[in-house]
Amino acid sequence: MLMFLFLVLALAVVVGAVTLAVVGGGESAPLQDAAPERLQDPLPADRPLHGTDVESLRFPVAARGYRMADVDDALSRLAAELGERDARIADLQSALAGARAVRHRPDEPGPEDGR
Q: Which residue has the higher pLDDT, 12 or 17?
């Protein structure tokens, strides 16, 4: 009998505590939803990316992995900058090849020869 009274009392305490927590315990509204964790873009906008920028990039974990929008944005930016660098490298390589070709043609008259 004593055990039964103890269980009833414990049940009443648990129900009371849950009721106070749900009602708000002094707050006028129930608990607010937590703001979703967002990527604080560590990729610098004011300069080109470096390898250390990519190495330090960490995405917040969502319910089923990473937030696809954050990952897509970062990958799009990386792809654009890599494309720009590839185009610049190709331009510089063609300019270098042209300069080497001109330098290795000594039989052609230059502007100072006057021929």
A: 12
Residue corresponding to tokens 């927590």 = 21
Predicted TM-score (pTM) of the model is 0.47
What phi and psi, each to the nearest 5 degrees, are found at residue 65?
120, -130
pLDDT of 15 > 60? The answer is yes
Residues 6+ away with beta carbon under 8 Å from 30:
22, 24
Single out the residue of 21, 73, 13 nearest to residue 42, CA to CA: 73
Following DSSP, what letter does each residue of the chain receive, concatenated? -HHHHHHHHHHHHHHHHHHHHHHTTT-SSPPPPPPPP-----S-SSS---HHHHHT--PPEETTEE-HHHHHHHHHHHHHHHHHHHHHHHHHHHHHHHHHHHHT-TTS--TTT--
The residue-averaged pLDDT of 2-14 equals 92
